[in-house]
Specification:
The structure is a homodimer. Chain A is of the alpha/beta class. Helices cover 44% and strands 20% of the residues of chain A. The first copy, chain A, folds into two domains: 246 residues, Alpha-Beta Barrel (TIM Barrel), CATH 3.20.20.20; 93 residues, Sulfite Reductase Hemoprotein, domain 1 (2-Layer Sandwich), CATH 3.30.413.10. In chain A, the strands form three sheets. Chain A has an eight-stranded parallel β-barrel with strand order 3-4-5-6-7-8-9-10, surrounded by six helices. In chain A, strands 11-12-13-14-15 form a five-stranded mixed sheet, covered by helices on one side. In chain A, helix 5 packs antiparallel against helix 6, helix 6 crosses helix 7 and helix 7 packs parallel to helix 8. The longest helix of chain A has 21 residues. The first copy, chain A, is elongated, with a radius of gyration of 23 Å.
Chain lengths: 355, 355
Amino acid sequence: MTRRSLIGNVPVGGGAPVSVQSMTNTHTDDPAATLAQLRRLAAAGCDVARLAVPDTKALAALPDIIKESPIPLVADIHFDHRLALGAISAGIQAVRINPGNIDSEKKIEEVAKAAGEADVPIRVGANSGSLPANLAKKARASNEAMAIALVEAAEKQCALFERFGFKNLKVSLKSSRVPAMILANRIFSEKHDHPLHLGVTEAGTIKRGIIKSAIGIGALLADDIGDTIRVSLTADPVEEVTAGIAILESLGLRTPNPEIISCPTCGRTEIDLMELAERLEREIERMKERGEKVAAAKIAVMGCVVNGPGEAADADIGIAGSKNGKATLFKHGETIGVFPQEEAFQRLLSEIRGK
Amino acid sequence: MTRRSLIGNVPVGGGAPVSVQSMTNTHTDDPAATLAQLRRLAAAGCDVARLAVPDTKALAALPDIIKESPIPLVADIHFDHRLALGAISAGIQAVRINPGNIDSEKKIEEVAKAAGEADVPIRVGANSGSLPANLAKKARASNEAMAIALVEAAEKQCALFERFGFKNLKVSLKSSRVPAMILANRIFSEKHDHPLHLGVTEAGTIKRGIIKSAIGIGALLADDIGDTIRVSLTADPVEEVTAGIAILESLGLRTPNPEIISCPTCGRTEIDLMELAERLEREIERMKERGEKVAAAKIAVMGCVVNGPGEAADADIGIAGSKNGKATLFKHGETIGVFPQEEAFQRLLSEIRGK
């Protein structure tokens, strides 16, 4: 079990629910745009958002953003430790800093002191792309070498902060190589109890990025390693949040509401399953947007009655294709009727609405 | 190490490269439509395709399909063992059968005998949705119980075929619950050396399905468990193939050609990274379609020069955003020039073309 840290009101580690993070890609010195994006992220289910603080203009915008943000914020700081000090003064809930690109330990000590006094956690961490030169060379040899180098780099960063009496650390070990990222986090979690922030870097375009992140983050979470996650995508950060939530839901770490299951299509399929599942998902999204109650936790959309109701027996409600354009509705594996397909779908929606 | 089996000319298990499977969703009794889909699947990189053989009409279409198919085929058989016998006579390269829905052991023996004589492998396997009643009830209790029930069901199926002297088996242990699927395969692979076919069932709509499959299949492959994979999606089966290949590529089990890496966008980004990465991907797809050579194995699209060239030092060629609408080109971490953005992109393409 890792130690527990708090990012504002969001607990991280120590058995707390795994939280989903993202990062704004607006210019932080534009508070209106940044807040608009933070509200979209929060609405999508994001627990914590990071934002870049690259200069004093961004820093000047922080108080307004922090005051209005619906979720706790992490300031992403590089090169200039005064930006970290300023963000802490402004009331930021957490700081991400890479001690490797701050040019003196004295400056790190100042940040550690300020964060300690304000009770603000700091994320440190190693990234395959920004390892110190001596480690970077060794790391290229293999995934194992990369994992060991990432662990060594992160341990050095932790040791530096701990030398200054600061222990409220979170740690990330990121790589664009998924096997190296998995192995690094496994090794680190065996040795230390710092809360772990999981992510795969430079994850590529959206489909490929989602797959890399799902494997790396998912493989670790499946073994109870990881306390907070970020799916990094070259895309709207809302996509990062919905992917992150889907990873947690897939592993039973967050309950989807509702869960829609469907079978892959095959030659037996008697219904346009794809279209129906997508349509159901859209209808449920709309119900949620309108604030309507969703009275089913698990909904099945199955291709045929042969396997459908049986395979989806644990669904609260389901629909399965029948012959001649009809569809069967079933509840907990028991058939409740056969109707023309559109009528069946409308009855399904009524059941989901609890009517 | 698992035993090696052959599906036509595709080796499965025994250290062979992990193969990617999909399943046609055309009606098998329509050979033209089925062959058209098989050709699209093969072009996308699919190694083996399964197709449903639900009745004698589908069976009658098999000889033509088998003769023309660009990749080996697996006949998916339920209920009627004569369809399996017919498919084997027609020259099918493999059979998927669930002994649980064939009503006598005598009929299984006939299939085992025919498959043995034709040297056709058989995939058996358990699925959380179609467990025998006695196991299904126990399995609901927890993911661990589900995993144990899946292993027990698969072992019974294997034992039945082995009793009839048939050993050329592949095994799948599938569940819509990802943690149960991971655990079942871990347990089974500790005990047996049958080649394993990995998949997550009822994986839902496309984004969610890709995430569930990437976690379940990816977590196992990361630990060297699994010999052939299928991503089940309620979508065009070509999507299953591209997702399956991306899983293998993410784990270094298949070399992407070329690999495009990009960093997540943040407030430091000086370039429209998303648009650029997507555009590059499209250009490379087009180059491949035209049969042009792609002279770079790893290409980076990075947001800024601050971290870009360093984080992507192992890229053969890369582009990073600079100030004032310019972009930096770099090779193996070394800057080769700063150009207006569009010129930089065109120079990047030329480098990729090896010109």
